[in-house]
Amino acid sequence: MDKKALVEKVVEKLQKEVDELEKNILSMRKAAVEAPGAMQSHSDTTKFQMNALKDDIEKQLSVKNGELEILEKFEIISTIPKKEICEGSLIKIRDGEKEINYLFLKGGSGIQIEDELGNRIIVIGENSPIGKNLLGKKIGDEIITQFGSKERRIRIVDIC
Predict the structure, then answer these.
(1) 90-159 CATH, one of 3.10.50, 2.60.40, 3.30.420, 2.40.128
(2) Where are the alpha helices (DSSP H) in the chain?
(3) Taking the model in full, what pTM does it have?
(4) For residue 151, what pLDDT band results from cuts at 50, 70 and 90?
């Protein structure tokens, strides 16, 4: 599996998210400017809400830009399989009968991509709940982790 191509797909998706956030910020700025002011209505709530939303989106944008910067500099150092999960690891776990693929990176958590065979891969990082549980684990290790509101026992099947 070409990890470099996978990282490039993550960067591409992350860039699309950044572009969308930038559009949202422009839209929120315009809405805040056009919202009625205190002299036009009894309440200045709409202007305040638009500015608060814009601020939240700007924080998200800052995080995404930081992740993008990290990923654009990221290099796959070795194609030799790792003995334990670390940054750059491609991980296959088994959850009951289902197998799930993860790509462990510092940026892009939550992004889903497909490999050349159409297999879905979910990007996780050291700050995600599952990432914290998987970091440093080896093939065959079993861990208990939260998937939504359910506690699940998963087994690491492969690391590359």
Answers:
(1) 3.10.50
(2) 3-34, 45-73, 129-134
(3) 0.78
(4) confident
